[in-house]
Amino acid sequence: MLLRLLGFILAVSGGALAATQASRPNVLVILTDDLGIGDVSAYRAGADVRTPHLDRLATEGMRFTRMRANATVCSPTRAALMSGRYADRVGVPGLIRTDSDNTWGYFDPAVPTLADHLRTAGYHTALIGKWNLGLTAPATPNDRGFDFFHGFLDDMMDSYTTHLRQGRNYMRRDREVITPVGHATEIFTGWTRDYLRERAKAPSPFFLYLAYNAPHFPMQPPAEWLAKVKQREPGIDEKRALSVAMIEHFDDGLGQVLAALKETGLDRTTLVVVTSDNGGSLAHAQNNDPWRDGKQSHYDGGLRVPFVVRWPGHVAPGTTSDYAGLTFDIFATALEVAGVARPAATDAVSLMPALRGEPAPAEPRELYFVRREGGAIYGGKSYEALIRGDWKLLQNSPYAPLELYNLKDDPQEKNDVFASQQKVAREMQVALRRHIQRGGATPWQPPAATAR
Questions:
Q1: From 138, 155, 200, 365, which residue has the greatest number of CB atoms within 10 Å?
Q2: CATH 3.30.1120.10 is held by the domain 366-450
Q3: Cα 59 to Cα 302: distance, rounded to the nearest angstrom
Q4: Three-class SS of 260-313
Q5: Do 292 and 45 touch, CB atoms closer than 8 A?
Q6: What is the distance between the alpha carbons of residues 427 and 429, in angstroms, rounded to a whole number?
Q7: What's the Cα-to-Cα distance from 393 to each of 174, 409, 432, 436, rounded to whole Å?
Q8: Interior CA angle at 79 toward 73 and 80, to 5°?
Q9: How far apart are CA 69 and CA 67, in angstroms?
Q10: Helix/strand/coil (H, E, C) string of the chain?
Q11: Distance between CA 250 and CA 252 in Å, rounded?
Q12: Tens place of pLDDT for every residue, the chain, 452 residues?
């Protein structure tokens, strides 16, 4: 009798768990590389670039207008997204690169990732595309919570068709070195479609992190996409044409991924987020209008990014939000929808109130940014920025003077008021120092490097 009762209790609790798992959404995070906010037609009227699939996603969900990347370059934003913490607090204030003399981060192996948390909660976890948080164990995706990895370990490709970095092959399927054929954007899209079709047959929810290299340089769109842009936009500058073609080629890949979701019926049960790791590169004719400057800069052109969320039945279609958040808020949002408790050390904030259309909290958040870099301009030092309410304090190199802007009065950051607003400047400097101290507690070089 006792055994039968125990069996009944286990069956009921198991059924409840299955029902809970079935009610949780899949989570698909699509991160582009250097996609400027002015290079998405949903954000810029009359743009010379067309992104119909990203635009459609925005009409089917919510378009955020004041989201920023966690950093002005790749690795720190990705580390923040994966950890839910500011990048220097997990050891990644700068780019992680192949060359040990020019790498400025070491992703703390003790910090659980979003993939770790969701896998523990019963999700199948996968990364397709670019990683850029470590090349060897214990820093590869399979070491950091991903059940499945099909992509590229390093920071950028020397060519979208050879997929090498400084002559080395960093393409992997899990831990196996592979040599796929074709344009990287199309390869990642194809692998994603295959993965979605497989997961449609599985009972458990999935977390898929799809990280395209595009539209990061080198600017190598397929010839037919470049020809299409030049025919539509006669007289367009060559550099701009290459950039537009790269973006439109990516958007086509996004359309194929969305089509695979619909074809498998997963679109109804999947939370989709699309954003960029930082602003577009002005040197490669990318567009961040109406914001000042671009990639590598703490002016808003380097930080403001497109950010679109679709979740049928939960996020009202055709809506916008002016909530000012950061990329890593995806971390806290994904945990909330998966029913996972927010870790105590998390700096990220869930976007669910904004997605439900609730008003933003009255007390504004502090938004902190950091980048460490080598070369003569930076010297291996870091430079930071801090936003608090309407005020923004920043540097764009460790040797430059601090600048202060009132974003409400001066959203294009043209009028530096550091000298005339000394009280605000001092308060912001004190707050910034606290962030720098917290980040300084985490090593940003691997143990062997620090021992040299």
A1: 155
A2: yes
A3: 25
A4: HHHHHCHHHHEEEEEEECCCCCHHHCCCCCCCCCCCCCCCHHHHECCEEEECCC
A5: no
A6: 5
A7: 42, 15, 9, 14
A8: 90
A9: 7
A10: CHHHHHHHHHHHHHHHHHHHHHHCCEEEEEEECCCCHHHCCCCCCCCCCCCHHHHHHHHCCEEECCCECCCCCHHHHHHHHHHCCCHHHHCCCECCCCCHHHCCCCCCCCCCCHHHHHHHCCCEEEEEEECCCCCCCCCCHHHCCCCEEEEECCCCCCCCCCCEECCEECEEECCEECCCCCCHHHHHHHHHHHHHHHHCCCCCCEEEEEECCCCCCCCCCCHHHHHHHHHHCCCCCHHHHHHHHHHHHHHHHHHHHHHHHHHHCHHHHEEEEEEECCCCCHHHCCCCCCCCCCCCCCCHHHHECCEEEECCCCCCCCEEECCCCECCHHHHHHHHHHCCCCCCCCCCCCCHHHHCCCCCCCCCCEEEEEEECCHHHHCCCEEEEEEECCEEEECCCCCCCCEEEECCCCCCCCCCCCCCCHHHHHHHHHHHHHHHHHHCCCCCCCHHHHCC
A11: 5
A12: 333 333 323 333 333 333 344 589 999 999 999 999 999 999 998 889 999 999 999 999 999 999 999 999 999 999 999 999 999 999 999 999 988 899 999 999 999 999 999 999 999 999 999 999 999 999 999 999 999 999 999 999 999 999 999 999 999 999 999 999 999 999 999 999 999 999 999 999 999 999 999 999 999 999 999 999 999 999 999 999 999 999 999 999 999 999 999 999 999 999 999 999 999 999 999 999 999 999 999 999 999 999 999 999 999 999 999 999 999 999 999 999 999 999 999 999 999 999 999 988 878 899 999 999 999 999 999 999 999 999 999 999 999 999 999 999 999 999 999 999 999 999 999 999 999 999 999 999 988 765 44
24-355: CATH topology is Alkaline Phosphatase, subunit A (3.40.720)
- CATH 3.40.720.10 residue spans of the chain: 24-355
Q: Which two tokens stand for residue 244?
A: 């537009």
Ranges of CATH 3.30.1120.10 domains, the chain: 366-450
The token duo for 18 is 């299955």
Q: The tokens of 37 are what?
A: 């906010």
| Model pTM score | 0.94
Determine the Cα–Cα distance for residues 268 and 239; give it in Å rounded to an integer: 39
Q: Which residues contact 132 (CB under 8 A, 6 or more apart)?
A: 74, 75, 78, 95, 96, 153, 154, 155
